[in-house]
Specification:
Largest sheet: 8 strands, mixed
Distance between the termini: 48 Å
Radius of gyration: 28 Å
CATH superfamily of the largest domain: P-loop containing nucleotide triphosphate hydrolases
Helix content: 40-55%
CATH topology of the largest domain: Rossmann fold
Length: about 750
């Protein structure tokens, strides 16, 4: 393999394969190329892909890494390139019994977690204002990150009513998770750790398998992740960690910077290689970022450099107010696009808190500039999407009471709170799940007449999908649930703009399912409903970023980690906001904020704009501000201070008002051509209904048929409920009528 396109230090890192290795990779220094070439080099040297484990922090980064490795050396079956949570999931799927769970356990997201906590506080008569769900979950998560359960929390707490209240909530929260055969994100890591630590045979199995382990973004690992990796690497010591202590920005959610700073203490034989040549940003941006980060004491000595030109100076604008600041940013984007050399997706506005986004949204809307928000309201948290995810979860795990409670009256089935509470009490007394109780015909017939028929119909649909799960694609199951539960019809019957928008979201969600199935097919793997639900549960904001959207990106600096943009705006450069008030109280706090500033600045490739507001309203409170300490640290020779407006000769707008009137998404002067009468939404709904209803054909012995999942085959038997088909590749399958996606050829 030719490594000539890598620089000298990258080549050293890629070809150093034996023993512990620390790669200190600065922002934009080509660490992904180095890691992928190192994996490819190992395979070229005869190492089996089956023996390689590469761990990163987002599904998107893991997918890109696998794609780049396979372009270098071809398909790599058996190689694990995945996130920490996906790795833990795979370990737990294989050894669920060792964790004390059933095989079909599900993963709860933050919405599910808050629902459980709110139910618990209500049942225990706890004041939700004094103990908000987010506050309680934050404490529980922090305890889990240190491997501290409810009993350990109580032991180390003071004997106060507050501690006892938190203990009671934590204890009941864990009980309900276990009863629902569910884990939250923290449980995935914690249970994987316990399985490996408490079962030497299982640990030995993975130690023997993974001779070579690589970890990306090592500075962001927490205590549990560190322990898992340390145990797995102990046998062979071939552990390569890649990271940058200057980019450790997640200590507030458990990341421990000591993991990377103390790597050489943990592995005394470790070799250290620094990647300091930057391929992303121009010289002025790197110099400005370094002039800030060099003030941190807790860092390893290094300085990024580039062969690129110095580029434009850093632009700084001090605005009179936060509204003027948003206006200025939108105006600059408009002016830069007006030159005709820029696309809207070249721009990112990176702010410290989500609360800052509203004014920028308003300013961009006024100029009719399209934008996308990351870290906003997640697509998966929309009501209709969440409802369908709960239906899918019940197909995998019928003991999921939380999911059943959510959808039992979606659409309306006459199951009021009183009736549902009675069913819940019966389930508790009998020690069964709600699904088991409602599977009893005597219980179904005891329900009010309207509820009896509709709930039975819903249960029958879910059971049928459970029985036929292995014979159906994920998209087939989704179509059947969407149509046969009455969910789609209920929205159509509403006949409102809001309902139509929800239908669009549901069909857009099916597009996501298709993408998942296609991705699996291209990699030669089977697309399962279990894995799809895991993908939904573990997707991060960065995974949803679309760099070809044609829209300005608005996001927090935390969410921007790992991304890059030609032009970056960093608003809110004021003491109290960035750095924040709390951070300014401690050296550790101010150093993490400084690292965050460094991350934000090094997202920019060509231009960097910094802004502040002399007067800002935040969380309903207005106040005058002082410019950020980070601005005072920044090398002033690199700054160009903007006046009222920054104009350059090469930038011209399309009209005298200074507004770019070119066409873009949502406001195009020439909309795309559509055939007369073509309604894409109507067409998509029709396709879903046809998929869920089956072909409607009657089959006879000898009929040649095609199946959405199994391909071509011949019918060999037919009875009242099933069709038996021998497929060319899948062999003989007995399929249920009315749900099997069969068509005559």
């Amino acid at each position: 393999m030719n490594l000539d396109h890598l620089n000298k230090e990258q080549q050293r890192a890629a070809t150093h394969t034996e023993g512990p290795l620390l790669i200190l990779a600065g922002a934009g220094s080509g660490k992904t190329a180095t890691m992928t070439h190192r994996i490819a080099y190992l395979i070229e040297q005869g190492v089996s892909p089956y023996s390689i484990l590469a761990v990163t922090f987002t599904n998107k980064a893991a997918g890109e890494m696998r794609d780049r490795v396979e372009k270098l050396v071809g398909p790599c079956p058996g190689m694990w390139i995945m996130t920490f949570h996906a790795m833990s999931l795979r370990i737990l799927r294989g050894h669920y019994y060792a964790a004390g769970y059933d095989k079909n356990f599900v993963v709860y997201d933050t919405v599910d977690q808050k629902t459980i906590i709110k139910n618990i506080t209500k049942e225990q008569n706890i004041d939700s204002k004094q103990y908000p769900a987010a506050y309680l979950l934050a404490i529980i998560s922090k305890e889990k990150e240190t491997d501290s359960g409810p009993e350990q929390f109580l032991e180390k707490s003071d004997d106060s009513p507050k501690a006892k209240t938190i203990y009671n909530v934590y204890n009941e929260y864990q009980r309900q998770l276990k009863a629902n055969n569910a884990m939250d994100f923290d449980d995935l890591l914690l249970n994987a750790l316990h399985v490996l630590r408490d079962n030497q045979d299982i640990l030995a199995q993975y130690q023997h398998r993974f001779r070579y382990i690589m970890v990306d973004e090592y500075q962001d690992t927490n205590h549990i992740q560190y322990e898992i990796i340390r145990m797995l690497a102990m046998a062979h010591q071939n552990l390569c960690v890649v990271g940058d202590d200057d980019q450790c920005i997640y200590q507030w959610r458990g990341a421990d910077i000591r993991n990377i700073l103390d790597f050489e203490k943990d592995f005394p034989a470790a070799k250290v290689i620094k990647l300091e040549q930057n391929y992303r940003s121009c010289g002025n941006i790197l110099a400005a970022a370094h002039s800030v980060i060099k003030n941190n004491r807790g860092r390893k000595a290094k300085k990024l450099w580039t062969e690129a030109e110095a580029g434009s100076p850093i632009v700084y604008k001090r605005c009179d107010s936060d509204k003027e600041e948003a206006y200025y940013v939108a105006q600059e984007i408009d002016l830069l696009c007006g030159s005709g050399n820029r696309s809207y997706d070249d721009f990112a506005v990176l702010y410290r808190t989500n609360a800052q986004s509203r004014l920028f949204e308003d300013a961009l809307k006024r100029r009719r500039i399209p934008y996308q928000i990351l870290s906003g309201f997640s697509f998966y948290e929309r009501k209709e999407t969440k409802d369908m995810i709960c239906y899918l979860r019940l197909v995998v795990n019928p003991t999921d009471d939380l999911a059943l409670k959510r959808i039992i009256n979606e659409p309306k089935r006459g199951m009021g709170p009183t009736t549902l509470n009675k069913i819940g009490a019966l389930a508790y007394v009998k020690g069964k799940s709600l699904f088991d109780i409602l599977s009893d015909e005597d219980v179904i017939y005891s329900l009010p007449s309207r509820a009896s028929a509709s709930v039975k119909e819903m249960m029958d649909v879910i059971r049928l999908c459970q029985q036929e799960k292995e014979n159906l694609r994920v998209s087939d199951i989704y179509d059947n649930l969407l149509v046969k539960t009455g969910y789609l019809k209920a929205l159509e019957d509403e006949n409102t703009i809001e309902a139509e928008s929800r239908i669009e979201n549901l069909l857009d969600f099916k597009s996501f399912i298709f993408d998942f199935e296609e991705e699996k097919a291209n990699s030669g793997e089977k697309a399962t409903l279990e894995e799809f639900l895991e993908r939904v549960a573990t997707d991060s904001d960065t995974d949803k970023y679309d760099d070809k959207s044609g829209k300005v990106t608005l996001m927090t600096m935390h969410s921007a980690k790992g991304l890059e943009f030609p032009i970056v705006f960093m608003p809110g450069m004021e003491d109290g906001l960035f750095p924040g008030h709390r951070a300014m109280d401690s050296e550790n706090g101010i150093e993490e904020e400084r690292r965050l500033c460094y991350v934000g600045m090094t997202r920019a490739k060509e231009r960097l704009f910094l802004t502040s507001a002399a007067y800002r309203v935040l969380y309903g409170q207005g106040d005058y501000t002082r410019e950020s300490a980070f601005l005072r640290e920044l090398d002033k020779s690199l700054l160009h201070e903007a006046g009222d407006t920054v104009y350059e000769p090469s930038r011209r707008t399309n009209n005298r008002l200074g507004v770019n009137t070119g066409s873009f998404d949502g406001f195009s002067e020439n909309p795309p051509f559509r055939p007369y009468g073509f309604d894409p939404l109507k067409y998509a709904k029709k396709a879903v209904k046809e998929s869920a209803s089956g072909s409607g054909e009657e089959f006879m012995h000898g009929d040649r048929v095609t199946h959405g999942k199994f391909g071509h085959g011949i019918v060999v038997d037919v009875d009242a409920k099933t069709v038996t088909v021998v497929f060319e590749e899948a062999g003989m399958k007995k399929l249920a009528k009315g749900i099997a996606p069969l068509k005559k050829v």
